[in-house]
Amino acid sequence: MSTDMKEETPLLKRRLTSSESKINNSKLFLAVFSAVIGNFSFGYSMVFSSPVLPKLKSPSADPGLRMNTEQAAWFGSIYALGAAAGGLGAMLLNDLIGRKLSIMMSAVPSTIGYMLMGGAMNLWMLQVGRFLTGVAGGMTAASIPVYISEVSHKGVRGALGSCPQITSVSGSLALYALSLVVPWRYLAVIGGVPAVLMVVLLVFMPSSPRRLLSMGREEKAKIALRWLRGSNYDTSIELRAIQHSIDTQTTVTLSQLGTPVFYRPILIAVVMRFLQQMTGITPILIYLESIFAESKVSLPAKYDAAIVGAVRLLSVIVAASLMDKAGRKALLYTSSMLMFLSTLTLTMIYHTNPCPPSNPLNLTMGLDHSLNDSIGNALEASQHGSASIIPLISTMVFIFGYAMGWGPITWLLMSEVLPLVARGVASGLCVAVSWLTAFVLTHSFTHLVDSYGLYVPYLCFTVVCVICLLFNAVCIPETRSRSLEEIENYFRTGRTFTIRRSHSTAQPPVQ
User: Fold this and answer.
1) Among residues 81, 125, 147, 326, which is most buried (max CB within 10 A)?
2) Is pTM, for the whole model, over 0.85?
3) Which of 506, 509, 418, 505 is nearest to 145 (CA)?
4) In 368-397, which positions are buried (b, 16+ CB within 10 angstroms) versus exposed (e)?
5) What is the DSSP letter of 296?
6) What was the pLDDT predicted at 483?
7) Percent of residues in the chain assigned helix, strand, coil, to nearest 5
């Protein structure tokens, strides 16, 4: 390094520090809040079937809307198909119309979907509405993290990066809580409100400065960045860093994809998304009330679901606070062990108390029985003593374990290990693998349980948790406190992080 460069680097760092000290985050937080309302809607819509399906399978349901096992399986799983389509579509829309407009566009299928379900007169309206809300969920899940990462600065990017999952979990909890007192049609009406609010707020928010620079709109990018950082912020340094990142970005060739620096991180990201879904998290959340109804828990199933939703929110907040302290691999180990112990416990419970062959499990049986039925269920559950709450406790442990590791870290590692030049294609592949796996698993879950009881799917989830543990031990690198250059070098050499962080951290922050 030349003498001029040695002198310039400390000066640049001082200028960056001085500039960052003048940042006002209030408008940035408002922009992020406006965007993550879409994640709230995503979490709400994903678990919409949990309290609704039991009512649609109830003998008291409208004959035109009453579902059998196959129809209920499609209603629960078709959301994942929509999410896969929406996620892949968002990969194209992000570059065609920008991140902000992509997020706003998700309100169209979301609103139409909820209108169809809220006013459904036929089964096709329910199924199409469920699919459209899945499309909206996939669009927001693919677009919002990109928007947040590009409008945030490095001082708060980590904290704001956890907001999408926290708001998604909050949306699920809101659905569980509202289902305690609100009829299912009104749940659909309420579900359309967050998307409308999101659009209204985002109209007043700026587009991504990176997106504007990539289109050659330097002055608009400067205005957007100053709005996000405050009027006293010197935008010139950060704009130059973003422009340098855009100028040096290249496209990846097929021959390059055959080298370890590309295929190894892509394989890790794809397999992690596959294993994440194979743990059973999506069918468990979608059929949560019905699972508790069959588990003979002493509390009514809808209250159990609300409790688990609250535990899920707590565990996500805990994971966000530990992410950069405990390390990725340590949290993944803990997550895998907690999920393994809980699914193993549930497997033994359901194997010991299988469903009677003459009365196979119907995942979507109605939960709102008469007062006499409720009293009878409570008396039956009380006969089991403390064993009646073990399924609830085990499910809470499973949700807590998942939300501490394999839930958020899978997304985080994907953003850390995927090469920048291949991130668009690789992210689309990860989204497709994740949601198609969720669709197959969610659709088959109902049929497996009706044929064999909860024992078989939970046994499969237990085996997957062991595979998760081994995969973490053998294949996943620890990326905590590592620069993106060091992580890339790890995959290039296949041995160690050999780049000294002192060189990489001297660079200006790249958006």
Assistant:
1) 147
2) no
3) 418
4) ebeeeeeeebeeebeeeeeebbbbbebbbb
5) T
6) 58
7) 75, 0, 25
- pLDDT digit string (tens) for 43-62? 999 989 888 888 888 888 88
CA angle 136, 139, 140 (to 5 degrees): 90
For 353, residues 6+ apart whose C-beta sits below 8 A from its C-beta are none
Token couple for 393: 């406790």
Q: Which residue has the tokens 């340590």?
A: 330
**Cα(142)–Cα(447) distance, integer angstroms:** 30
CA distance 294 to 459: 17
DSSP 355: P
Residue with tokens 């030049």: 421
Q: How far apart are CA 249 and CA 192, in angstroms?
A: 39
pLDDT digits (tens, 9 = 90+) for 491-511: 766 655 554 444 444 444 433
What number of other Cβ atoms are within 10 A of residue 77's Cβ?
24
pLDDT tens profile 189-213:
999 999 999 999 999 999 988 888 8
% of the chain beyond a pLDDT of 90: 26
Position of tokens 């994907």?
Answer: 414
33, burial (CB in 10 Å: exposed 0-12, middle 13-18, buried 19+) = middle
Whether 361 has a pLDDT exceeding 70, the answer reads no
The candidate with the shortest Cα–Cα distance to 455, out of 361, 365, 377, 387, is: 361
476, 332 contact by CB (below 8 A): yes
Structure tokens at 294: 């069959």
